[in-house]
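Pipeline run #58 for the internal structure catalog. This entry was flagged by the ingest filter as a single-chain record with no existing model, so it goes straight to prediction. Upstream metadata was stripped on purpose; only the residue string is passed forward. Reviewer on rotation: M.T. Logging verbosity set to normal.
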Amino acid sequence: MAARLIEKYRQEVIPGLKQRFGYTNVNAVPKLEKIVVSMGIGQADQDQAKLEAAGKQLGMIAGQRPVATRARKAISNFRLRRGMKVGLMVTLRGARMYEFLDRLVSLAIPRVKDFRGLSPSSFDGRGNYNMGLIEQTVFPEVDPAGVTFTQGMNIAISTTAKTDEEARELLNLLGMPFRKD
C-alpha cells in the first residue's frame, strides 16, 4: 500500500504544479528527492549512553537506524579530536521519506509550542528547504516519560525543483504550514 502523501502528490500536487508553472511533461514536475534528519550531540565523547539514547529515539522517529557522524577536524577549544563521534543522521528516500514528511506535517509540527508557521525564507536558492526542531518529543513515537534529555534536530528536505518558488509551491501543496509574511 502506497503512503498517503504519495497518493496526494500524484492526484493533487502534480496537476497543481503543472497548471501553475505550465509543465507539459510529468517528469519535469518537481518532486521530493530525499530528507536528511540529523542531530548534533555535543557531549557524545564523554557520555556514550547519551549517544545511544539519542540514536534509539532518532531511529524510532525516522523508522531507520541512524549513522554516527564523526568530526572532520580537531578543534582544541571544544576538546574535539578528529574522528570523534559528534552526531547522528538518517537519510530517508522513497516511501519512508513520504511517511516521515506526512508525520512531520500532520502530527509533529502542530505539537510545537507557540507555533506560528515555518519560515518561508529557509530555502537555499536551489529548491532545498532546511528547518530545525528544538526537541524530539513533538513526535508521537517518542515517549516523553522516557526522555532523559531534550535534543534538537535539523531536517533538510531536498527537491528536484530548480527555483525556490517551485519548491515552496511543492511543499505548500504537500501540506507544509508556511508563515504568511
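catalog note: The domain at 31-174 is CATH 3.30.1440.10 (50s Ribosomal Protein L5; Chain: A,).
catalog note: The radius of gyration is 18 Å.
status: ready for reviewer M.T.
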